[in-house]
């Protein structure tokens, strides 16, 4: 099998179109298209369906992509490893949720330790498909998603229920049921809005739902709502007295932060090293030790 043709197929599948793959690889479009046809002829199977919307992988193409992408990545890293004594080099594709700014110093520190590593970070709230989206490591909050994914827990933390001091002085919230008398704002999910406060599940009728924690922080600082924030967004305003904890005796549940991979048997040295580094550094980066 022509490894160059296989590499072009993987790049085309990842790009979603031949023209985009040609742009990314620098290979002329007619050459790339011809090399894919030759690869299909060699394998005796159609790998992609070409439409005006781009490329769609056939079942054979999807299987080849899933197996060839990590294999090619390992070959590339082996080649780079000949030039890097540590053997830790290459491109690391990571997905992570929005608003997790404390993770950026973790990436920076890892890159400083391994200067031959290049990060490709996909920030999204959706749960990516590690294979289809070409992601090596997905950092997620909560459950692990697909049962076939494996990984490790990097940290756990709980959100803080907060409000401006003036709002809590007016509302006198002493019990979860008191939240029915005050304006609340919630993170947007597909489920009916509710907060698990200690042993009590509290349905909420929010004045605002959003998928932007900075929006929730803004509303809380403005004294408009009671809301939940991750600890690394809440700690600073809490320490400066701009926000105060609401119902501290009824904490929100802990949530795990996990680093997931598609198959632990195919991990490259780069991915293994990153998982070990993240497990040792993410908890302190998120400042989880300052939770109460």
Report on this model:
This protein is α/β, with parallel strands linked by helices and 292 residues long. The chain is built from 9 helices and 14 strands. The chain has helices at 3-15, 18-25, 29-43, 59-81, 103-113, 165-171, 213-221, 231-239, 269-285; strands spanning 48-51, 54-57, 90-96, 117-123, 137-141, 150-158, 160-163, 185-187, 194-197, 200-203, 208-210, 227-229, 244-245, 254-261. It has a 5-stranded mixed β-sheet. It has a 3-stranded antiparallel β-sheet with strand order 12-7-13. β9 and β10 form a beta hairpin. α1 packs across α4 (59-81).
What is this entry, summarized?
This protein has 292 residues and is an alpha/beta fold. 38% of the residues lie in helices and 23% in strands. The strands form 5 sheets. Strands 4-3-5-14-6 form a 5-stranded mixed sheet. The protein has a 3-stranded antiparallel sheet with strand order 12-7-13. A two-stranded antiparallel ribbon has the order 1-2.
Strand count, sense and barrel status of the largest sheet are: 5 strands, mixed
Distance between the termini: 58 Å
Q: CATH homologous superfamily name of the largest domain?
A: Periplasmic binding protein-like II
Quaternary structure state of the chains depicted: single chain
How are the strands ordered across the major sheet?
4-3-5-14-6
- Helical content stands at 25-40%
Identify low-pLDDT runs: none
State Rg.
Answer: 24 Å
Quickly name the level 1 CATH class of the largest domain.
Alpha Beta
Proportion of beta-strand residues: 15-25%
Structural class: alpha/beta
Find the count of extended strands (DSSP E, 2+ residues).
14
Global geometry: elongated
Count of distinct structural domains: 3
- Any guess at the CATH architecture of the largest domain? 3-Layer(aba) Sandwich
Helix-strand pattern: HHHEEHEHEEEEHEEEEHEHEEH
Per DSSP, the total helix count is 9
Mean pLDDT: 87
CATH topology of the largest domain: D-Maltodextrin-Binding Protein, domain 2
């Amino acid at each position: 099998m022509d490894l160059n043709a296989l590499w072009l197929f993987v790049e085309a599948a990842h790009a979603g179109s031949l023209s985009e793959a040609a742009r990314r690889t620098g290979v002329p479009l007619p050459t790339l298209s011809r090399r894919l046809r030759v690869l299909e002829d060699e394998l005796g199977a159609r790998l992609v369906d070409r439409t005006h919307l781009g490329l769609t992988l056939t079942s054979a193409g999807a299987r080849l992509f899933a197996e060839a992408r990590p294999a090619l990545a390992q070959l590339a890293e082996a080649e780079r490893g000949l030039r890097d004594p540590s053997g830790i080099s290459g491109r690391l594709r990571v997905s992570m949720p929005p608003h997790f700014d404390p993770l950026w110093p973790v990436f920076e520190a890892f890159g400083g330790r391994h200067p031959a590593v290049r990060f490709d970070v996909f920030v999204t709230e959706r749960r990516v498909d590690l294979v289809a989206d070409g992601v090596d490591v997905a950092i997620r909050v909560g459950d692990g998603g697909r049962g076939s994914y494996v990984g490790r827990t990097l940290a756990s933390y709980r959100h803080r229920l907060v409000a401006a001091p003036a709002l809590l002085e007016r509302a006198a919230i002493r019990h979860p049921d008191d939240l029915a008398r005050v304006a609340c704002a919630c993170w947007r999910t597909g489920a009916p809005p509710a907060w698990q406060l200690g042993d009590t599940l509290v349905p909420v009728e929010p004045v605002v739902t959003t998928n932007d924690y900075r929006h929730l922080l803004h509303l809380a600082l403005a004294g408009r709502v009671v809301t939940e924030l991750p600890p690394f967004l809440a700690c600073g305003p809490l320490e400066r007295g701009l926000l105060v904890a609401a119902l501290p005796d009824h904490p929100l549940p802990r949530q795990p932060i996990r680093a997931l991979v598609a198959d632990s048997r195919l991990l490259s040295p780069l991915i293994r090293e990153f998982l070990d580094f993240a497990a040792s550094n993410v908890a302190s980066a998120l400042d989880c030790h300052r939770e109460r």
